[in-house]
Amino acid sequence: MARWAMIAAAAILALALWRGGADTMPPATPKAVADLTTIDFANVANYSRPALPAYFDGTVAALDNSPAPNADNDRIATLGRVLFYDLRLSTNDRASCASCHQQALGFTDPMRFSNGISTAATTDFHAMRLGNLRYWQPGSTFWDRRAPNVEAQASQPFHSLVELGWGGAAGGFDDLIRKMGATTYYPELFAWAFGSPEITEPRIQQALATFVRAMISSTSRWDEGYARVFSPAAPNRALDADLPNFSPQENRGRHLFMTGAGQGGAGCASCHMPPTFALAADAGSNGLDPGETRLFKAPSLRSAGLTGPYMHDGRFATLSEVIDFYDRGIQDGPALDKRLRENGKPRRLNLNAADKAALAAFLTTLNDPALTTDPRFSDPFRR
After folding, report:
1. Among residues 334, 346, 341, which one has the least CA distance to residue 293?
2. Kind plus residue range of the DSSP H or E element containing 291
3. DSSP-assigned states of every residue in 157-187
4. Distance separating alpha carbons of residues 89 and 97, to the nearest angstrom
5. Whether pLDDT at 12 is above 50
6. 231-264 in b/e burial notation, b at 16+ Cβ within 10 A?
7. Which of 39, 193, 206, 317 could form a disulfide with 75 if both were Cys (CB 3.0 to 4.6 A apart)?
8. Distance CA 325, CA 346 (A)
9. Residue 76 in this model has a pLDDT that exceeds 50
10. What is the C-alpha R_g of the chain?
11. How many CB atoms within 10 Å of residue 109?
């Protein structure tokens, strides 16, 4: 009897282990999702646990604007990837987020102003680069900072009559959600990401925000060189040390960027803070126009060398024009940043031609070939 009891107990244990294994097996990708996209439910891309350089330490984490309730989740980010690229989320199946934020160009648009659902109208502002968007405090978005966070920003292109077209007579988010609910794939994707197939505006916001915040840029040539000299104990964390993989011209530009205007540099890093090169939280106006009272939010300078135009209205076509402006074109106004003043007037750097070229050369070292080709951020649709 004892022998049979042991055999029975072993069988029960084996059955329990088998059931436990079955319960934890990754889900199969529904046919509706697999037919239209390359998303694989059994192999979820890693968005929430990025491998970051040592200098992306607590000083960088303190700038992270991810809200606590919106903890990183790989399934939710994957849903955000689908939403970001889906042309069906516009009223006429013509535009998506990726139409204006193109991966190969650092998630911006080479056009000064972007088309959305029609070529007859364009946006009011130039499309911003998205890399390192998460490392900006206080977390507001758009050039004019009108959205308080990335989640709120995610909704506005849907409501825009120019971008995705759901404003006014188009019916707003209710009609968009009905359109999404009628597809074969979104109920499956929302159930997988959130545990139920319900499609709501907050869920759409969370998915897009989680995906966009995962666009971390940390693999440029500058990163490659800085990783070799970085020391948290070094003066200024070794930001002004020559980088061994840079040309003399690039190191000159790096020095100008990192060094204050009063110490022989251009002082760029005081507003565009390395290693993320995102804007300082206390940045004021950059004096594009005389009498400026507005505070604009600039994107990170990562991959800025891939394409122009630049500034909120795309007025500058090249990096050289941007550098010329900061050298001698800053205009006075109530909102002008104090770092751009000298003796009560707009600062004039008076750089020579070689130094201007060196600054432009340095900015191109911030281009990130990994982010612009990373499959995790690419179009998931089978076109």
Report:
1. 334
2. none
3. HHH-TTTT--SGGG-HHHHHHHHHHTSSSHH
4. 9
5. no
6. eeeeeebbbbbebeebeebbbbbbbbbbbebeee
7. 193
8. 11
9. yes
10. 24
11. 21
Beta bridge pairs of residue 341: 346
Residues in the chain: 383
Q: Which residue, chain included where needed, has tokens 């990783």? A: 227
Residue with tokens 């300082």: 280
User: Residue 52 region, left (φ>0) first, then alpha (ψ -120 to 50), else beta?
Assistant: beta
Type of residue numbered 1: M
Q: Give the three-state DSSP class for 102.
A: strand
Average pLDDT estimate for 1-10: 41
Identity of residue 55: Y
Of 221, 190, 209, the closest CA to residue 133 belongs to 209
- Per-residue model confidence as pLDDT tens digits over 85-141: 999 999 999 999 999 999 999 999 999 999 999 888 899 999 999 999 999 999 999
Contacts of 95-102 with C-beta under 8 Å, sequence gap 24+, read 95/163, 95/164, 95/165, 96/164, 97/157, 97/208, 98/379, 100/127, 100/163, 101/127, 101/128, 101/129, 101/130
